[in-house]
């Protein structure tokens, strides 16, 4: 991992950021026991490039940040499927939130999590991660609350190995990640994070339509690879 101290290095966009992760993950290429899980929405364009280059499966793990009401971009925690809830004690000390307001935010974000799971995963079967190597991908980390929730939700499904791969994150957040997973990949580690979007030239909000289109595209590629594999097996027989 390299520290960006002297100058500000920018990713052109999320797709290019995803391509920058591939070299560090090349040993996972073409493996049936590897799955890339994107954290929607911003993590999907990044994860699509990773999964496509590695020729492995792509799926989604929906996580919702719990923003502090007075500073919505600052996470006081996060939730994921299966009832996972992470709270950021440092954030709550800096910006105290009473229990009623906290529960209101959790309830609102839970409804949005359910909506996104229905919209994005559609008819896909439930995640089965037992004995799999799972690569969790987002477009960057700030506090890391959302990724921590994703890690907990993933761990509950008994994977063999968990890898976190993100284009940019501050050193203290990555240090916390190393204590939770088997491997962390992050090419850009600025001492002063500012925000995830600060490290991108083009950082628009990823739309629901873009998420669904990329997931459909990845599904078609996976089906094509599966058919090619079956044809090879038939030819070998």
From TrEMBL:
Superkingdom field: Bacteria
InterPro entries, A to Z: PRTase-like, PRTase_dom
Gene Ontology molecular function, alphabetical: glycosyltransferase activity
Span of domain Phosphoribosyltransferase: 17-176
A Pfam family that the UniProt record links to this protein: Pribosyltran
UniProt entry tagged with the keyword Glycosyltransferase: yes
SUPFAM superfamilies reported in the protein's UniProt record: PRTase-like (SSF53271)
KW Metal-binding (keyword) present: no
Keyword field: Glycosyltransferase, Transferase
Name of the protein this chain belongs to: Phosphoribosyltransferase
Organism: Pseudomonas asiatica
